[in-house]
Amino acid sequence: MTTHPLRALVLDANAISRGEPNVQLLETWAAACANHDAELWVSEVVAWELAEHVSTTVASVNEAIATHNRARRKWGVEPLDDPETVDVQTVVAVIEQAGIVIVPLDGDSAVAAVRDQVLQTGAGSRKKGVKTGAADSAWLRSVYSYNDDSFDGLILVTADVGARNAAREISEGSAPRIASNLDELRHLLDEEQSVATLEQADKFRTAVQTKIDTPEDLHYLADLGPRNWWSPAALDRDFRSDWEQQETDIASVGAVEIVGSATYDPWSDAVTGRVRVPVTIEEQYARQDASGDSPEYLFVTYNASVEAGVTVYLNTTREADAVVDDEFAVVRLAVDDDSVDQFNF
Fold this sequence. Notes:
The protein is an alpha/beta fold and 345 residues long. The protein has two domains: 8-188, Rossmann fold (3-Layer(aba) Sandwich), CATH 3.40.50; 194-344, no CATH class. It has ten helices and 14 strands. The chain has helices at residues 23-35, 44-75, 88-97, 107-119, 134-146, 161-170, 182-185, 198-212, 215-222, 237-242, and strands at 8-11, 39-43, 101-103, 125-127, 130-132, 154-157, 177-179, 194-195, 244-253, 257-265, 270-288, 295-313, 323-324, 329-344. Strand 10 and strand 11 form a beta hairpin. Helix 5 crosses helix 6 (161-170). The longest helix has 32 residues, at 44-75. Residues 122-133 have low confidence and may be disordered.
């Protein structure tokens, strides 16, 4: 297959962590594309999907605030201000302002996408007996049409396993270049990666430390695994059957360490590597006392660590702050069982 000069990277919604627009990340990749005489594309259909994910999150937050405000009124306390709504047009505009080309959905692509869903061709599929796939077909077809009825010069970034076959069918047998995620994308670009310099590695470590030191990202780190994901061996089965866990919090975070060598990708100006983050965990447990009349509470603290693969975009050519990709890839979890301590309150 002949490799054409890169015209654009094309993102599906699932190429972005949590399927929600990350403006800093989008701006960084748009700038990287511009530095290589290419563009960053998002289909109008994908922009709608990203907007819908945002709307769902906003609606959930609004509902929680409304519930809280009803309680505040009962308490005689002033309610919180209602947050501003975020509509589809706003999200699409923000994506476009990040330097992204919004690929329009043309009429022929829309009709063909509906046909795919009805006839179960291309990206058409069934989920629990219901025909779906029009949206997936529409974004692929709109990009194909916008690129002069070809996928030449494009790299599609999508985790959708059906996208590869659907794109091949749309292009009548010509397989486009596809990456499952942004990390895999780097292997399809022209420039070779190298071991990060000491300066690059230091910027990488500092950016990760700054991110996890903020309260909101600290909670994100705690949510990387399921409930009780550290699971100290010192808390045996008898303990867990007697006590019910209520909450788990990260009480403190130590200095981030780089495990092994970090890798620098000149195309995206990014450093990727494994980090180890030492943390102190605080868990709260509860049970009924021996008489069954009153609750008892117990705190358990211990030292633990998480190792994860992280990517940091240095943004050196833009003189912008480094951007840490939210997609932490957990590699290893560990607990110092000798550090487990318990105290009642």
